[in-house]
Design a protein that fits this description.
Its cofactor is Mg(2+). It comes from Hibiscus trionum. The chain contains 19 helices and 54 strands. With 1094 residues, it is α+β, with helices and mostly antiparallel strands.
């Protein structure tokens, strides 16, 4: 066998670290000591809970509870929780969903994958890099796999340096990132270990943001920006920068910044009408045919990757745009570069002398229309749901386009529309392809897997937020969610391997399950438009605050009055909330909690440098209703994603004198919702109160606080203002289920206004004085309605053992303070606190299937507070939370792949590479020759997929020997060589024919600020390129390679002329029995024998 044949590529395979036994010995196959100890702790915790259930502290101190009927079904059904989602494949949690508050200013915006690494760019301008071989390991931050992070990028006054796009250059070991400040930065793949590494190269590419980048099959870097601006950075200029020393890189970056080719001049030459004046969001390299696709909002342009000529302009409907002489059309999108302005003005002067007035007017109107259309598209005035969002190319040469309305459109390589499908109504945000599959990521968080014809293979919810970007490497397709989480999905999914992994991981759930214990204090108080003293607040909250982790306070009637309610409704309509009095209450509670914690710490330790304090993390006010949440600082790293909501239930469901405000937060990766309510008043308004609850439960929709960038600033009223429109309230979730039903624990608190039936004022006073609360509870409207299943369905309330909290004379202490006025309102338990956790049965224990189990340890009112006609109430919950230790589960995932024989057998079967042969390993080209390279798939069962890249190019020295072969960008081809097709599918026992063509290209172009400087610099030296035919199967990224030497001879004496029967043949796919008739009759074997092998 020729030594150039069948060279295996050691690129990572699926589950690379565990796929074979001969992996890198430097990687220990065993988990770290820290990880092992954690696993043991979880196992001991599991055994303790299951062998000694009677020791659970929850059962010792919990109060008896009353449970409402009607829960567990319909909109009151509990969310389904399991160790693994039953409707999606098992996945690799590269980076678990981070808390939003920890990501402000550093959200991940894009990802890119190389053979060995996964890269991510953030809005701070920094990049992260994961080694694919280490993805199963325990990391040090965020429970993510081990990664390195660069230094934060300083924008130097040029605007935000956020990373928008990334592209890898495997040939030269560099990853290039495009930034919002218009710069392109280069990062070495073998960057130094540890954090804080810096970019190696940087230049100003555009005045606007770099929206898209791509390497073409000829190694040039193309970048797209706003207003249709596309620039090409020729490989020769980049190569010069890569070869300089560290000290010279700044100078080299300046030279790269001037070496671009501006495609505007190419457009003017070919005379296409207004091409892609909208932002160039997508660039796609068709390496199979040596073309480049660029897309605006609703149109495409097709370019020749070698000559950089514009071939075709067409819109999303497939209609071709006509040519027109645009020498006079003002280019409103052109960047205001001085030299470009000079050229444009000179062209305009020449045209004015040759065109008449009407032609000039026509062109001016067309230009103005273009500008208006472009601004309208950017501003959203043209709300076209067909907007182009993503492009990808498949191995069979088809182009797939994803649109904002969920439409997937298939095109052939020449820009002809083939078909369109709409498997999902949500916007397609990203597309990716490998082997015989296509993946689509949607704004809904769903991922679709399709075959090459667009048929659905699988569908699952990949993330709880939009899927922004996808990348493929080491047998996984990685998805980046809008919240910053990254997951890896096997390229075999859906498939038989999923079931095995699902069963094994589920069985090991106790190893990666962690149980947390948390105490939550909730309080409700109708303050009756008054203000409380600090001593009243301390009496209400008392010493219990020092033992809790979260405090939730709900107030009603903070401020009332017709004028205030009207102004509140107006402020809500423009997305504002809060009031001066509401802020006073927040500040007062802040101060009270601080003072109480100070005294507590001084009593425990006189000199304590570090003490745990409470910090307000969010609040929401609607008219007179106010809710706020405080979190102890040691718990704060586990609490976040804080959202707020409001639902008015007053006149016309529009006024906030009645209604609810809510806060949603994530605690240990579980969802908690707290809702502060004020329902309809009066004894006979039971039906209205029930309707108020139903309206709140069904329509409460949480939206994000607008400025929690600094959680420490949450004390300001603006920290809870909502980024919402006027129609945000009352919206229902997409799935048709209320958002509150999706929470693991929901707590309702407030002035529900339910009264006592069939009891007089005097009877109630007598029973209260005797503390005969059992008789009064039987007449409680709320309890009767809960028993009938009419309200608070499925919720629980601790049995009330305190006196009714309404109605009192202000500033009168004790039970003698009940209403002594003319109306003598009957005392009632108006102020209540109810909850629902994850339990389906009373005896359910905390687990991943039942992740939040709560009990009430204290439920009482504070009769000493006399600042209002209501008494404040508190309820303290003891909560157990089960969550997944993602770091441990990630390692268990790897252990299963390594040790499970059935998994290893499946992997070996899926990772098999079909056997192929090539017709030659040496090709000699001269005078625009074309040679056919044949690739034969000898396997009679599996298809073979191939891709042809160029390992490097060199010039031939005087002795006829080749010098060092330098790779071009992303293993691109030299400009003198055409390979068609450069990728494809070979059926079993079939042959693929590839055309290897020598193109006359003897010039070395240099560009400065977009203009050629020397078009006729002859380069007539002999050259040599090493082509690599990379062959793989459907489900493996490991390849078997064939190396082919292609020599370009400029001298005519080196080879005999071609025979008469020579025909130029396009590469195509032929059955094995057909390819012999297309063989060549002349032979260059004698010459090839004398060539020096690479």
């Amino acid at each position: 066998m020729d030594p150039n044949d069948d060279v295996p590529d050691r690129s990572p395979r699926i589950f690379d670290r565990y796929a074979s036994s001969d992996d890198d010995d430097s990687q220990s196959p065993y988990p770290s000591l820290h990880s092992t100890n954690r696993r043991l702790d979880y196992m001991i915790q599991f055994l303790d809970r299951n062998l000694l259930p009677q020791q659970s502290s929850r059962h010792k101190s919990s109060l008896p509870e009353f449970v409402a009927k009607g829960g567990g079904q319909g909109i009151f059904a509990l969310p389904d929780r399991k160790p693994l989602h039953p409707n999606r494949p098992p996945h690799l949690e590269v980076r678990p969903h981070p808390l939003r508050e920890t990501q402000f200013g550093r959200f991940l915006k894009t990802i890119a994958c190389t053979d060995r690494q996964l890269w991510a760019g953030s809005e701070s301008g920094a990049v992260r890099v994961w080694e694919l071989k280490d993805l199963y390991e325990e990391g040090e931050e965020e429970a993510a796999a081990p990664f390195r992070e660069s230094s934060v990028i300083s924008s130097n006054g040029n605007g935000n340096a956020a990373v928008i796009c990334m592209v890898g250059d495997e040939g030269n070991g560099v990853v290039w990132s495009g930034h919002r400040d218009g710069k392109i930065r280069g990062w070495k793949m073998d960057c130094e270990s540890g954090g804080g590494f810096k970019e190696g190269w940087c230049w100003q590419a555009h005045r606007g943001p770099v929206l898209s980048m791509v390497f073409t099959c000829y190694g040039d870097l193309w970048s797209g920006s706003e207003g249709g601006n596309i620039r090409i950075w020729p490989w020769e200029g980049i190569q010069n920068a890569l070869t300089v020393t560290m000290e010279e890189r700044h100078k080299a970056s300046l030279l790269i910044g001037r070496s671009f080719v501006d495609l505007r001049s190419q457009i003017a030459v070919n005379g296409f009408s207004s091409i892609l004046n909208s932002d160039i969001k997508c660039l796609l390299s068709d390496n199979i045919r040596a073309k480049v696709w660029s897309s605006g909002y609703l149109s495409f342009a097709l370019w020749d990757a070698r000559t950089r000529e514009l071939l075709k302009v067409f819109n999303i409907d497939g209609q071709i745009e006509n040519r027109a002489d645009l020498s006079l059309v003002p280019d409103f999108a052109m960047e205001d570069d001085i030299k470009m302005k000079i050229v444009a003005s000179s062209k305009k002067e020449k045209a004015q002398s040759s065109f008449g007035f009407f032609q000039q007017s026509r062109n001016a109107i067309m230009g103005a229309a273009d500008a208006v259309r472009r601004v309208a598209a950017k501003g959203g005035f043209l709300d076209d749901s067909r907007r182009i969002e993503a492009l990808t190319i498949t191995i069979d040469g088809m182009i797939w386009v994803g649109c904002a309305n969920g439409l997937l459109i298939q095109w052939d390589g020449n820009g002809n529309r083939i078909q369109d499908i709409q498997p999902h109504p949500s916007a397609v945000l990203c597309l990716c392809s490998f082997g015989s599959k296509i993946w689509a990521g949607y704004a809904s968080g769903i991922v679709h897997a399709l075959d090459l014809d667009g048929n659905m293979l699988g569908e699952w919810v990949a993330h709880s937020s939009s899927v922004l970007k996808m990348a493929i490497g080491a047998g996984y397709i990685y998805t980046l969610a809008k919240h910053g989480g990254i997951r890896g999905w096997s390229i075999t999914s859906p498939g038989t391997l999923d079931g095995i992994l699902y069963s094994e991981l589920t069985a090991k759930g106790f190893i990666y399950t962690r149980i947390e214990n948390l105490t939550i204090l909730t309080g409700t108080w109708n303050v009756g438009q008054g203000r409380a003293s600090k001593s009243s607040l301390e009496s209400w909250l008392h010493s219990a605050v020092s033992d809790v982790g979260i405090i939730v306070i709900g107030l009603q009637e903070v401020e009332m009055g017709a004028g205030f309610l009207a102004m509140s409704a107006v402020r809500e309509s423009v997305g504002l909330d809060g009031s001066a009095i509401g802020q006073w209450w927040l500040d007062m509670i802040d101060d009270t909690l601080h003072d109480m914690m100070e005294r507590k710490s001084q009593g425990v330790m006189r000199k304590q440098s570090h003490q745990r304090r409470f910090e307000r993390v969010g609040s929401r006010q609607l008219a007179g209703m106010l809710i706020a949440v405080w979190v102890k600082d040691n718990l704060k790293p586990h609490v976040g994603d804080i959202d707020a909501a409001a639902v008015p239930c007053g006149f016309g469901r529009a006024i906030g004198n009645k209604g609810a405000v809510g806060i949603r937060l994530r605690v240990y990766d579980r969802i908690f919702c707290f809702v502060n309510c004020h329902f309809a008043a009066h004894l006979d308004a039971v039906g209205r109160r029930n309707a108020d609850f139903d309206h709140v439960y069904r329509t409460m929709s949480f939206s994000r606080p607008s400025n929690l960038f600094n959680a420490g600033a949450a004390g300001a009223s603006s920290a809870v203002q909502m980024a919402r429109g006027a129609n945000a309230m009352g919206a229902q979730s997409v799935e048709g289920m209320p958002e509150l039903s999706e929470a693991d624990m929901v707590v309702f608190l407030g002035d529900f206004n339910y009264r006592l039936d069939d009891v007089s004022y005097d009877e109630a006073r007598d029973f209260i004085s005797q503390r005969s609360f059992d008789w009064l509870r039987e007449r409680d409207q709320l309890r009767a309605e809960m028993e009938a299943g009419n309200v608070f369905q499925g919720m629980r309330e601790a049995v009330i053992t305190f006196a009714p909290t309404y109605k009192f004379d202000k500033h009168v202490a004790g039970l003698s303070g009940y209403d002594s006025g003319e109306k003598k309102r009957i005392p009632a338990w108006c102020d209540r606190i109810l909850y629902r956790d994850s339990r389906r049965t009373l005896g359910s224990e905390c687990s991943l299937e039942c992740p939040v189990v709560s009990s009430v340890s204290q439920y009482e009112s504070c009769m000493d507070v006399t600042d209002s006609d209501h008494k404040p109430v508190i309820c303290i919950f003891s909560v157990e939370i089960a969550h997944i230790d993602e770091s441990v589960r990630r390692q268990e995932f790897g252990d299963i792949v390594r040790s499970n024989e059935e998994v290893k057998c499946k992997l070996q079967e899926l990772c098999k590479i079909p056997e192929t042969i090539v017709s030659t390993n040496n090709i000699l080209l001269q005078n625009q020759d074309t040679t056919i390279l044949r690739i034969t798939n000898k396997c009679n069962e599996c298809v073979a997929l191939f891709e042809i890249v160029c390992q490097g190019e060199s010039t031939i020295k005087g002795d006829g020997q080749a010098s060092y072969h330098h790779p071009r960008g992303s293993f691109g081809l030299p400009r003198w060589l055409q390979v068609t097709p450069a990728a494809g599918i070979i059926k079993p026992d079939h042959v693929a024919e590839v055309s290897i063509h020598l193109e006359a290209f003897h010039t070395r172009e240099e560009f400065v600020n977009g203009f050629p400087q020397n078009w006729r610099c002859e380069d007539d030296r002999d050259k040599e390129a090493i082509l690599v035919v990379k062959v793989h199967g459907r489900y493996t990224m490991e390849t078997r390679n064939h190396r082919i030497r292609v020599r370009h001879c400029c001298s005519t004496k080196k080879i005999d002329p071609k025979p008469r029967d020579y025909v130029q043949v396009q590469g195509n796919l032929l059955h094995r029995a057909d390819y012999q008739r297309l063989s060549f009759s002349y032979d260059v074997v004698d010459h090839l024998r004398n060539l020096h092998g690479p």
